[in-house]
Amino acid sequence: MIDWESFGNVSILSVEDDGFNQELASAIFEEIENVTVYRAENGEEALDLLKNIYVDVILLDLMMPKMNGFETLKSLKSDEKLSSIPVIVVTSKEEEKKTTYKLGANDFISKPYNPEELKLRTFTHLKMKKFADILTGIKTSYKSDDASGSKNFSELKEILEIVDSSQKQLLFKLGNLSHEDETKDSNASKRLGEYAKYLAKLQGLNSKDIENIYYSMSIYDIGFLRIPKDILIKKSYGEIRKHPELGVEILKDLKETALIKMAKEITYMHHEDWDGNGYPRGIKEYEISIYARIASIIDYFDELTTKRSYSETLLSSSEALDVMKRERGSKFDPALLDMFINNFDEFISIKKRYS
């Protein structure tokens, strides 16, 4: 069931010189009270209209008089105020799809429109746009002193509810932010995910668990988004150590899928130590989830070798490995660490690919 009301008032602009398809687009959304469909017969008319109204999604035909769809798309995506609007290009031709994709098209649909397909594609892009808008708000509050506020908390929960099993790629956008700051490279989520995936494979986890641990590593440090930036910069470790509990608080009301269950375990336990001297609960050995034990090794290696706002330590990969060997049986599961050590060249290869 598509929940259109969750978006408030929605505006769609149909740019099309074919009267039948204009009527069809309007009729498809007519029954949805909060959706308004605007019309433009060519690109010039569309760009003039956009000077005065805001729209959430644009349906764009390619063959039109005066200003065709290719030129219109190029203008839309080069305009800072309009570039974030999702554009669904109306075409079924592969060559046109390739060309418009390079120009910034977000999706494609054939005509005449299939009503359910058009609704579903529009809904998906509204959801993704909402994700991006909330993410921008979270990023702003994270850089301020208000990261622990109730608005930030509710926005984090809302954005995770948007990310369902069909949109796992969106986790990377949130994940790169939750791996604390803009000095960290944009491949953080992928690198951590690939590390964990490889170690999970060595451990013999099944294919579903391997896939889920890859995505879980995008949000295991989400609790950092509830710690104001100035506290991280001041390295107030008492506050920093709260991030596992803050992270689980964000995740706790989400639907308990296998992915979310694993993400909760990793988020809460990835700082627990094999010998029981970790936090937040001080549990030990096999009381700690296997997923969290894997994440612990991955997280520590990445922390030692990649700049983080709360840590000045930056070691070479070989230096980091020497440090980790000394933690065998104390901080880390010895069997898992042995797998990491014995296959270290592959982890270095992953690091080079995603750094």
Count helical runs.
17
Write the H/E string, N to C.
Answer: EHEHEHEHEHHHHHHHHHHHHH
CATH superfamily assignment of the largest domain?
Hypothetical protein af1432
Largest sheet: 5 strands, parallel
Low-pLDDT residue intervals, each spanning 5 or more residues: none
Percent range for β-strand residues: 5-15%
Q: In the residues, how many domains can be counted? A: 2
- Overall outline: elongated
Which radius of gyration do the C-alpha atoms yield?
24 Å
Describe the structure.
With 355 residues, the chain is α/β, with parallel strands linked by helices. It folds into 2 domains: 4-125, Rossmann fold (3-Layer(aba) Sandwich), CATH 3.40.50; 148-353, Hypothetical protein af1432 (Orthogonal Bundle). Helix content is 53%, strand content 7%. It has 17 helices and 5 strands. It has helices spanning 19-29, 43-49, 69-78, 94-103, 115-142, 150-162, 170-178, 188-203, 207-216, 229-233, 237-240, 243-251, 258-269, 290-305, 317-325, 334-342, 344-353; strands at residues 10-15, 35-40, 57-61, 87-90, 107-109. The chain has a 5-stranded parallel β-sheet, sandwiched between helices. The longest helix has 28 residues, at 115-142. The chain is elongated, with a radius of gyration of 24 Å. The model has no long low-confidence stretch (mean pLDDT 87).
